[in-house]
Amino acid sequence: MRNELLSLLSGEVLDEEIELTLGELSWACQLPVERVFELVEEGVIEPLGRDPAHWRFLGVSVRRVRCAQRLQRDLRVNVAGAALALDLLDELERLRARLRRFEG
Amino acid sequence: MEFKDYYQIMGVKRDATQDEIKRAYRRLARKYHPDVSKEKDAENRFKEVGEAYEVLKDPEKRAAYDQLGANWKAGQEFRPPPDWNQGFEFRGGGFTGAERFSDFFESLFGGGGFGGDFGRFTQRSFDTRGEDTHTKVLIDLDDAYQGASRTLNLKQTELGTDGRPQVKERTLNVRIPKGVRQGQHIRLGKQGGAGTGKGEAGDLYLEVEFRPHPFYKVEGKDVFLDLPVAPWEAALGATVKVPTPAGKVDLKIPPGSSGGRKLRLKGRGIPDKPPGDLYVVVQIAVPPAQTEDAKAAYRELEKALAFNPRARLGV
Predict the structure, then answer these.
(1) Which residue of B has its CA nearest to A17?
(2) What ipTM does the predicted assembly reach?
(3) CATH architecture of structural domain B216-305
(4) Where in chain B is the domain with CATH 2.60.260.20?
(5) Which of A47, B16, B297, B308 fits as disulfide partner to B20, beta carbons 3.0 to 4.6 Å?
């Protein structure tokens, strides 16, 4: 089998267990640090720790930041609009999961 | 190649004003944005709308497109007229986020692909990190319990040495770690789009999606199972066998359980620290009354219990 010759790639699951520093998040999302500050200010992502030098972001932040970037770029919404959309999308996902449970 | 009716795609008339086109684009972009939309074909529709807007928003391109005439139908076999492109000069309008336009678009405006007057790749002659790419990976609930590996066939558009985009196929074998959940993202470093020059490759993001299971439902890391129970098991209590994704277990049904009662099997949901729970939801199954004996038994029961299931409704 050809597939067995391929090496097995392991990625990292961007969940609550992974923590990133401000620099790591900025690199992972290819976003200048100032823009990360904007997203923190708007509550799109919430760091743990008191000041930027000690900030830690959960892995899920990568997904939220990237989604916010795409919404801002493609739909021309501002940071506040992207934050609102993300919150509503989260809520929608929760409701969809619940719906899936009740649907045959 | 097929003719594309950009007006039809945008849902506007051929004589629509630039403002009407802009409004139609914004509405459709919201509707089909892949982050927002759950429409099946959202990503392709979003790209299609982006391409249509790229042409119609730009008066020069729109005029050129209109010159093809109004008699073309979407999907009709199309070849650009031989004198096409004469007398028009296309200036860059910037991309709208669509990554790659159709052959139809490129034959009209692209001058042979991205290398035309307005391709964004032309700005990339220096070292640039490759783009991050995103794909879904469909797994079974069992894979989340045990971990698994998946072979993915990916198609990527890359810029060839001649500066033209080429579709490259590649196969990746990816480990699905135990404990992943619906909607989580797995990042594979440097497996995204290739960089240019000395720029390194972007990352590949895999979005985990569970294939629907015939009887388990998943919510976060909790798993739900509807368990059919005989009326006497529910009334008198019983110990019954219950399937779980990690194997069968014995479950005690407490006496007097009514339909919809949730019984929690702690820690038997999706493995994690701490693991999710498995909820067994009691469903009372009604034995069929097809034989005389069965009917008699039901009548006996009716006499013995004097039960009004609708007492709470006041009737």
Answers:
(1) B273
(2) 0.78
(3) Sandwich (2.60)
(4) 133-210, 216-305
(5) B16
- CB within 8 Å of A25: residues ≥ 6 apart: A36, A45, A57, A61, A62, A65
| Other Cβ atoms within 10 Å of B195 Cβ, number | 17
pTM for this model (two decimals): 0.73
* A chain contacts of residue B211, beta-carbon cutoff 8 Å: none
Mean pLDDT of B32-57: 90
CB proximity B191 to A under 8 Å = yes
| Cβ–Cβ below 8 Å for B173 and A6 | yes
The partner residues of B173 in beta bridges, in order of sequence, read A8, B151
Which residue does chain A place closest to B131, by CA atoms? A30
For residue B66, CA distances in Å to B11, B17, B48, B69, B101 come to 16, 14, 18, 6, 19
The residues in A 40-59 lying below 8 A from B, measured between CB atoms, are: none
Which residues of chain A lie closer than 8 angstroms to B185, CB-CB? 13-14, 62-63
Write out the two tokens for A9: 């790639």
A14–chain B Cβ distance below 8 A for any pair: yes
Structure confidence by residue, pLDDT tens digits, B159-185: 667 767 677 788 999 999 999 999 899
In chain B, list all ranges with CATH 1.10.287.110: 6-123
CATH for B6-123? 1.10.287.110
pLDDT digits (tens, 9 = 90+) for A22-65: 999 998 898 999 999 999 999 999 999 989 999 999 999 999 99
Q: Which residues of A touch B273 (CB under 8 A)?
A: 17
Q: Nearest chain B residue to A93 by CA: give it.
A: B183
CA gap B219, B54 in Å, rounded: 41
User: Is any Cβ of chain B less than 8 angstroms from the Cβ of A10?
Assistant: yes
What would the CATH number be for the domain defined by A18-102? 1.10.1660.10
How confident is the model over B218-244, as pLDDT tens digits? Answer: 998 999 999 999 999 999 999 999 999
B94 close to A (CB below 8 A): no
Superfamily of domain B133-210: Urease metallochaperone UreE, N-terminal domain (2.60.260.20)
